[in-house]
Design a protein that fits this description.
The complex is a heterodimer of chains A (88) and B (375). With 88 residues, chain A is mostly beta strands. In chain A, 0% of the residues lie in helices and 56% in strands. Chain A has strands spanning 6-13, 24-29, 33-34, 37-39, 45-51, 54-62, 66-74, 79-81, 84-85. In chain A, strands 1, 5, 8 and 9 form a four-stranded mixed beta sheet that branches. Chain A is elongated. The chains are: A mainly beta (88), B alpha+beta (375). β4 (37-39) of chain A pairs antiparallel with β6 of chain B.
Chain lengths: 88, 375
């Protein structure tokens, strides 16, 4: 199963490049995926695993920093890197 | 509270322990054969035929909700905000906050476009590649209309409705979840009260594969309303799921429960949802409601949406209801004669249709067990 799925991982950063803790990150569109949202920790990191290959639209945001939406392609057995730079 | 068994279930030739439930607090990772065999086997799996026992139109098992409507309420069927079901279909302008644009015709157009893009053949969710058997895939391909699904997680215009008063029933029975996984990562989900101290949610909210397994702790916030917590919050590490999820990671078994502590201040005071095992024919085209805590909306706000079920498989139901990450575990319910019966536990978003774990007989039985545990 692991070889047939991929993952998305990255960080949520503010306008100064500092990690944003407590940001919400979720998959807004894509192949079948669990509808659970991630909360970033102090390091601003997040990851989604066991994803079907395909294109995903990912949304990240926090009340203090606004939100951003980006698209990434996921391939089987690979990790797609996706960092967010929020405007606030 | 009543339980009515009006249909019949097939006697399978053998027993499968996938529905044998697991508990987090005792560390009971595997049951003995004798223990596993005490739980009702899953007739759909052992029969190996997705078209087996699932075509009844009767309500096969029903556990009623806590609220008992008066005769006047049944007659007027006052639903809201925007709840669909019962005698009177809710229409725009009637206790609703619908945006200007809520167009069913657009949904039909989107589905037609999706079919054209696929070359006219039936669209199968990628889920079927890994989690459906040959019989199920064959059933779906034989009935291509069953594969008409939506293109987006949020479909067309976003016409989700904010639930502004979460202190009333049933909205106060829907809980925001703040999940701390064993590896320390944190997640947002949704759950719903099925009993005095029992919160039903997605299996992947209580047991997180690749995150260390059972969640370390889950904070449950009934009726969360933005920054407001009208009923406070309560944390628990007493979690339940089934081996089909925890060990086999089967999408068809993606469901679980949180048992809240004895002495919780609001135990038995908020009410609870009923739940029902409906036959396939009852599900197809049924108007269902879904409400939960999407992560793409202001933090802690509850949002409702409703649409018809477009597809029912032996273990899932699919619908065009708009959802977003954070709504895993949301109740999917019908409103009928004043009773609210959950028929699914929302679990997945997909470009081919959002979906829930269907409440079939073994799921019903386990939810009932967990409800009794939290009585």
């Amino acid at each position: 199963m692991a070889a047939r799925t991929g993952r998305i991982a990255g960080r949520v950063l503010d306008a100064r490049g500092q990690p944003v803790g407590g940001a919400t990150v979720l998959i807004a569109r894509g192949p079948a995926h669990p509808d659970i949202a991630a909360l970033t920790g102090q390091a601003g990191t997040y990851s989604f695993t066991d994803l079907q290959p395909g294109r995903y639209e990912v949304l990240a945001g926090s009340p203090a920093h606004g939100s951003s939406r980006m698209t990434v392609a996921v391939s089987a057995g690979e990790a797609a890197s996706l960092d967010f730079h929020l405007a606030g | 509270m009543t339980r009515r068994k009006t249909g019949t279930t097939l006697k399978p030739p053998g027993r499968r322990p996938l529905e044998a439930y697991e508990e987090s607090d005792t560390g009971l990772e595997s049951l003995s054969v004798a223990q596993a065999q005490q739980y009702a086997p899953d007739p759909f799996e052992t029969a190996g035929n997705g078209a087996g026992a699932s075509l009844e139109s009767a309500d096969l098992d029903v556990e009623d909700s806590s609220e008992q409507p008066t005769a006047a309420e049944i007659a007027t069927e006052a639903a809201g905000p925007g709840e669909i079901g019962g005698i009177h279909e809710t229409t725009p302008g009637q206790d609703l906050e619908l945006p200007e644009f809520a167009n069913e015709a657009l949904l039909e157009t989107s589905r037609a476009e999706a079919q054209d893009e696929a070359g006219g053949g039936p669209l199968l969710d990628a889920w079927y590649a890994d989690f459906a058997d040959d019989a199920t895939r064959a059933l779906i391909l034989q009935q291509p209309r069953m594969t008409e699904t939506a293109m987006e997680v949020v479909i067309g215009a976003d016409d989700r409705v904010r639930v502004t008063n979460t202190t009333t029933y049933p909205w106060r029975c829907i809980c925001a979840l703040r999940i701390t996984a064993k590896d320390g990562s944190r997640w947002i989900g949704t759950g719903w009260l099925a009993g005095n101290r029992t919160v039903i949610t997605a299996g992947h909210c209580v047991y997180l594969h690749s995150r260390g397994g059972w969640a370390s702790s889950i904070e449950v916030i009934p009726g969360a309303n933005g920054a407001g917590r009208p009923f406070g919050s309560v944390s628990s590490s007493v979690l339940r799921s089934v081996k089909g999820w925890t060990q086999d990671k089967q999408r068809s078994h993606d469901y679980g429960a949180i048992i809240l502590p004895r002495g919780w201040a609001h135990a038995g005071k908020l009410g609870y949802f009923g739940f029902a095992n409906l036959g396939m024919l009852s599900l197809l085209g049924l108007n269902v409601n879904l409400s939960g805590y999407p992560g793409d909306k202001p933090d802690g706000t509850q949002w409702w949406h409703a649409r018809r079920i477009t597809l029912a498989t032996p273990r899932t139901i699919v619908y065009n209801i708009d959802t977003a990450g954070g709504q895993s575990g949301s109740p999917v319910w019908r409103l009928k004669d004043g009773q609210r019966h959950c028929v699914g536990i929302h679990t997945n978003g997909s470009v081919l249709g959002n979906s829930a774990t269907r409440i079939v007989a073994p799921v019903f039985d386990n939810i009932k067990k967990w409800k009794d545990e939290g009585a």
